[in-house]
Amino acid sequence: MSYLYSKLLTNIVLPLGDVLTRNQIMKYYNLYDKMQWMNKHSIRAYQDNKLIETLSIAYKEVPFYNNLYTKHGVDINSIKTINDLHRLPVVTKSDLRKSYPDGCTRSTKFPWREYCTSGSSGNPFAVRVDNETMSMARALMFLRADYSGWNIGDPYLQTGMSLDRGIVRKLKDILLKVEYASAFDLSDRVLDMYLDLIERKKLDYFMGYAGSLYCVAERALAVGFNTPLKGVVSWGDNLYAHYREKIERAFKCRVTDTYGCGEGIQIAAQCGRDDGAYHIFMPHVALEVVDDDGNPVPPGHGGNIVLTRLHPGAMPLIRYWVGDIGVKSGEESCPCGRGFELLAKVEGRDTDVVVTPRGNRLIVHFFTGIFEYYKSIDTFKVIQEERSRITVLIVPCPNFRLEHWESLKSEILEKGDPDLHVDMKLVDEIPLERSNKRRFVVSTIRS
Ligand SMILES: [Zn+2]
What we know:
Elements: H1 2-21, H2 25-35, H3 40-61, H4 63-71, H5 93-99, E1 112-117, E2 125-130, H6 131-146, E3 156-160, H7 166-175, E4 178-182, H8 188-200, E5 205-209, H9 210-222, E6 231-235, H10 241-251, E7 255-261, E8 265-270, E9 278-280, E10 285-290, E11 302-309, E12 320-328, E13 342-347, E14 354-355, E15 361-362, H11 364-371, E16 377-386, E17 389-396, H12 402-415, E18 421-426, E19 441-443
Parallel strand pairs: 3-4, 3-5, 5-6, 6-7, 16-19, 17-18
Antiparallel strand pairs: 1-2, 7-8, 8-9, 9-13, 10-11, 11-12, 12-13, 14-15, 16-17
Bound molecules: zinc ion.
Zinc ion binds near residues 334 and 338.
């Protein structure tokens, strides 16, 4: 039955939904699903073609890249493969921010939306993403979930930050058998509701932000929850070793972590290997690990992650400095049989959970979900040193006004906990942690 339902969704219902909503999710899902089993040579050839196409469009249609490559004296015709990428200059968020939107976007025939992201850097930053790029990213969201053993149509619980699901999303939730849970409120009462939902609706899979999965797992262990799941998929913040251990113990199954960023790029997912390496979604993104000057570092060595989305879309991202640290794996193949290259490790999403006076748990996405709408804030960091109080460090943009803070603060109180004392401190900069990482929620107390 579930096999038939999965086929019905994959082959008929979802493709029809794509037509009605002007998306192409299933087209790309089928492509990526097939490509992951191809040999590396063929996947590389596909990447190289996509790179040449993306570069040529960006150079012709996007002033930002045209000026950049002209200034650096790069002949883009000499860039023929992924291995040539290192000859192009890297691009930072602040470079793009300066020329947004007119200088770094282009028009495509698809409708687009602006996504504001705090990503892991803490800097709100706008990216224009069109429907085609978003379809690719959504296709990869299905694929990343597949790596846990989940199939389209298997019922699951998902935590997230979008409270208003809208009609299309609600319909999709019903068809895909998703129970959607808000990660804004993670108090004991709500966590018990989620555990109850898993049992009552016989949900076999659980997906969401690593921090929220951890909070649910902690509660499950505390109340003696005893229903094994088949798989857990995490994303967003860092899946620490102690998060993984607790989640796997609570739900008696494997957690497969995934790596993506809010800029319309899904990057990689774990396939369940013991060493925890991630398969990079090669048809969608070229991932380089480079030193501080942008030069490639060999596999096995840590460096900065630089991404090239292999599709120009409404805002090309070529050698984009995402702000995370990673290590490529030297292994050429994986026992699971997938041909996508391996990323041994990714870091840079380190955060803590803030436990409030009333017992709510605020994960990093609680804060980014609020801060990303305030463009007058350059960077922020939340520090909790006592249970009743948090201090928010803010690096303001020139257009920052005190009203922005007032409204932000009331959102934190309303969605988080009205009993929390929230202080603000304006600062000129927030120093990075070791190895250039930014931890933007730090709690020094243990719940
Ligand atoms: Zn694998």
